[in-house]
Design goal:
Pfam families: DUF202 (PF02656). InterPro entries: DUF202 (IPR003807). Helix content is 69%, strand content 0%. By secondary structure, the protein is mostly helical. The longest helix is centred in the first third of the chain and has 29 residues. It is elongated.
Length: 113
């Protein structure tokens, strides 16, 4: 009987990815996110310069580290969009991004003190 694929036979090649606006939207979303974080860190650094208390300085340093980590993740994801079938974010990248966002939320909370 014929009609089904034979076991062990190579599968057909995947069709090329639709070159629509999805990669551009993803690129823009990562850029907006890193720009927002940069502005938040700049405001935190400004507060730390005006009132150099230990909380403000620690918040500015933590915010800067979180921003750099988020920037590196964004560059890695944007670079991955050039492939015909970009992979999904791994668990480490997802958790790293989540930690960066939570650190920035904590920095905002520290600035309220």
């Amino acid at each position: 009987m014929t009609g089904g694929p034979t076991p062990g036979a190579p599968s057909a090649a995947e069709p090329p990815r639709d070159p629509g606006a999805q990669p551009e939207r993803t690129w823009l979303a990562w850029r907006r996110t890193t720009l927002t974080c940069a502005v938040s860190v700049a405001l935190t650094a400004r507060v730390a310069l005006e009132d150099p208390s230990s909380i403000a300085v620690v918040a500015a340093c933590l915010g800067a580290l979180a921003w750099v980590a988020l920037l590196l993740t964004a560059h890695r994801r944007i670079g991955g969009l050039a492939r015909s079938r970009p992979g999904t974010m791994g668990a480490a990248e997802t958790m790293g991004t989540l930690v960066c966002v939570l650190v920035l939320v904590g920095v905002g909370g520290m600035m309220l003190l």
